[in-house]
Fold each of these.
Amino acid sequence: MTVLAVIPARGGSKGVPAKNLAQVGGVPLVVRAVRACRASRKVTDVVVSTDDQAIADAARAAGAEIVLRPAAIAGDTATSEAAVLHAMDAFEAMRGATVDVVLLVQCTSPFITADDMDGVAGAVTDEGADTALTVAPTHGFIWRESGASAAEADGYGVNHDKANRPRRQDRPQEYLETGAAYAMRADGFRSAGHRFFGRTKLVPTDAARVLEIDDPHDLARARALAPLLDPAVLPSFDDVDAVVLDFDGTQTDDKVYVDSDGREMVAVHRGDGLGVAALRRSGLRLLVLSTEQNPVVAARAAKLKVPVLHGIDRKDLALKQWCDEHEVTPERVLYVGNDVNDLPCFGLVGWPVAVASAHDAVRAAARAVTTTPGGEGAIREIAGWLLGPGLHVPTPHPPTHAHS
């Protein structure tokens, strides 16, 4: 049985520009959706329908097949159903196979899980439902207003009588459509042209994970929630080809000591030097990248025997150029930062990492966060993630180069 997950992800978005590539927990939204689909036991194939090359590249790298969506069904008024039908036809033409069950998966629901996919898909494949969707239990009282004008507006209960409000336990359970995942029998979906034909199965999910990103405030909330809702995932040696380190606040505690002659000094951690030495011996590419034009940055990098770029205003542009010059794929770069000037680099790399003392916005955008503050051994901790706590250096692996 072919169970196809289709993720619509067009490039245009007015509420949040480039929304489907916005990062939550250090991972682009479209990539989060692809990973959830690929982790499902029921889903056999994953397709991303898009009109945007950057989205296509990110989704393909995450393991999805790409269907390029024509402009006629890529505008603001295009329906998700149209994108799914087009993707089904394109997939069947490419594979020469028939889709039995199709899932519509929205990458604007950042906390969707493989269990959600299994739930809606299984309702159709195993339980005889024609359609299924994820829902969240709710006990809220819903209101509407009637009246021709604001002066005449009168609020009335939609799911309750405002004159007689029963206790929660005495009311029938109601469910809120999450907008995250839907499953349909493929033949019935083609015939009906919409996602709710026949017998519809409700698949409850955790209400705490229900969030749809429609505007910048939603995105900010998702980033704040990611450290609480995402399972902790730390990178391994096989995940990265390069480690790029900010300096102030990452290799130091962000304090500067100034003597009477104006000379600046900072404190670094010996454990970090040990970690950097082990990373260097492992064969990983290393770089110190700093905004500060300060001799102490270059001196520390020289002592660590690590190349340095400092006095850099646009660190993301410098990092991209460095990756191009050294044929390093940005998705396989681990970048360690602590403050908001590191956020553009976070958006470029596959492993954005914040130190424990980082700014809240940086911690929210990180894919992983150290337990150790900057300047107190955070780099040693990261080296332990990659090499093991004993900093055993594995057999160096050849880097995965960017495609020219």
Amino acid sequence: MTSTPPPATTSMPKNVVLVIIDDNTGSLELLSTALAHEGLSIFTASDPEEGLDIVFREHPQIVITDLVMPGLSGLEVLDRVIDFDPAIDVVLMTAHYTSESAVDAIRKGASDYLNKPVSISALRERVNRLVEEAHRRQRASELENQMLANARFEDMVGRSPAMLEMFSRIRRVAPHFRTVLVTGETGTGKELAAKALHSLSPVSNGRFVVLNCSAVVETLFESELFGHVRGSFTGATQDKMGLFEYADRGTIFLDEIGDMPLGTQAKLLRTLQNQEVLRVGSLTPRRVDVHVIAATHRDLRGAISDKLFREDLYYRLSMVEVHVPALKDRPEDLPLLIRFFLDRFSSQFRKEIRGLTQRAHIVLARHNWPGNVRELENVLGHACMMAQASTVDVQDLPEYLRFPARHPQAAPTLVTAPATDSETFEEHEKHLIAEALSRANGNQSQAARALRIGRDALRYKMRKHGLL
């Protein structure tokens, strides 16, 4: 292997990496000399296996490979490179040109197919176009990062008109509200909107207390909200403070308020009107100063008609309403959210995930996201955990997205990826390495190629997992 890096440069774009693979050392020397210029780092290999090791280690933007070589053919190299990262531009060269092999190469993902002897000027022009395209992708990525930074509002991400309107509404409402109703489909991020309202409110230094009304047993609702005194019911062995008292001089977030029993709704209304709570079994009211944010994905007006929700409580809560739009109604935010979650999971799983392939983007763009942002988070958490390369591809996505025809009525089961504990990923990585070594009969070089990592990286991971 030889390397001919360009001289140091202070230009903003990063160097583009080119790998040339050809069993003819004379061709390697000629091509590397002819193509060398500032901004391009060139690596060469006369052995295709060695060339693939360079590809896996250096992650180039461009690969030029001969078609006919001992050991591995150029088409086999193409398959391995595309499998590693479909975004890499692969150019095939051959002295045995046929239209059939050219069509086969292009169909498999080659960027170009050139006949030897290759015109140096034509090849240089072709490589210069690929270099400029790589720089364009770099600039697009940097712009995307800048857009993501500019599209952040508290812990939310969006630049669509619907989201900008919501952000503006939260800014206007937060300094003044006593009660707010947040509406939106399941998974849209209603709790994040509630946290933003609290964060920008005068009680931001107070507690933000959350109660999911759909998860509370009906008989314990009043005790959870308002507390109880000792002996007020069986099992009440001591006085207990309710969530309203706990949230005093702060905010209480009542998620899925539509699931609250009617009896509790009446007592909640009294608390909102009088700013005082009455513990279960007590005759003495206690004053509280609490901002209340309620959220629901239900049609509360319909629930009022069905006698399942109190009309007076609805009007008390909905004096100000904030609606969180569904993901399908803000498709322009999808690329930003993808970048946001890739960055998060890349850090969480300690993996370098640079982005999605174009075909993976297409799969995500055509999905209608019934589970909204929560579903997208789940999908990308799964994809980042499964990805072996630094680019998420279609095969890393859940099956219901890859094969929608097999799951025409499937509603995905959303399982949140581990937020702080990386043990699951560590076990998964150890399993993959052990399996690759077993299939390679202990041959570390072969296992490294199967895993699409360098041999040194494999040995490091083997030591880390006690496999060496």
